Amino acid sequence: MSVPRFAWAITGSGHYIVECVELMLSLPNVDLYVSQAGEEVLKMYDIPLADLKARLPVYRDKAASAPPVGLFYKHVYHTFVMAPTTSNTMAKCVLGIADSLVTNLYAQAGKCRVSSIVYPCDTAAEILTTAPGGKQVMVYPRPVDLAATEALRAFPYTRVVDDVEALAEALRQRLAALA
Q1: pLDDT in tens, 56-93
Q2: Are the C-beta atoms of 73 and 45 separated by less than 8 Å?
Q3: Helix (H, G, I), strand (E, B) or coil at 92
Q4: How many whole angstroms separate alpha carbon 150 and alpha carbon 160?
């Protein structure tokens, strides 16, 4: 049997995406899952998908049934990470909607009792983020987006983190627990 892996998903959020990708690339044994919007955002932030493909397996959202989710049932993954995660994906996960590759991955991780680490783009009433091109901008999440973030915190096998430092710490703790 092969060594269990991280499954990492990138959605259409650019919120600290450069830092999230750096963290992902620092981990051992990672498969990357990219939504269609995630592909667009990677381009906006000058992160070539081809460069990522050269370093790790990349699965793209191209099939209606999201076939790679079956890998959770084969115990290929020990941890699922969504970072960064859009408010749209958060809302779908809270409602149990699994109609895309990424939302299906989250649903199947939960059904298989695989730990998930989620870094939403909406974690506070005011958030400083980096826009494409590097400019720092202030974002003001809607109450509905903040409510979805809070709701997901209560889900079993799910750890929601509020910033890149907390994401890095959650990953360190997960690696230590697996060691």
Answers
A1: 999 987 766 567 788 889 999 999 999 999 999 999 99
A2: no
A3: helix
A4: 9
- Give tens-digit pLDDT for 91-145: 999 999 999 999 999 999 999 999 999 999 999 999 999 999 999 999 999 999 9
Please spell the DSSP secondary structure of 129-165, one letter per residue.
EE-TTS-EEEE---HHHHHHHHHHHTSTTEEE-SSHH
**The residue to which tokens 């996960």 are assigned:** 93
Show the tokens assigned to 81.
Answer: 């990470």
The helix/strand/coil state of 44 is helix
In order of 121, 145, 146, 157, 159, the CA distances from 56 in angstroms are 24, 32, 33, 25, 24
Domains of the chain: 5-178 (3.40.50.1950)
Helices then strands, counting H and E runs in the chain, come out as 7, 8
Cα of 44 vs its chain's centroid, Å: 18
Contacts of 120 (CB under 8 A, 6+ apart): 84, 85, 87, 90, 148, 149, 152, 160
Check whether 1 has a pLDDT greater than 60: no
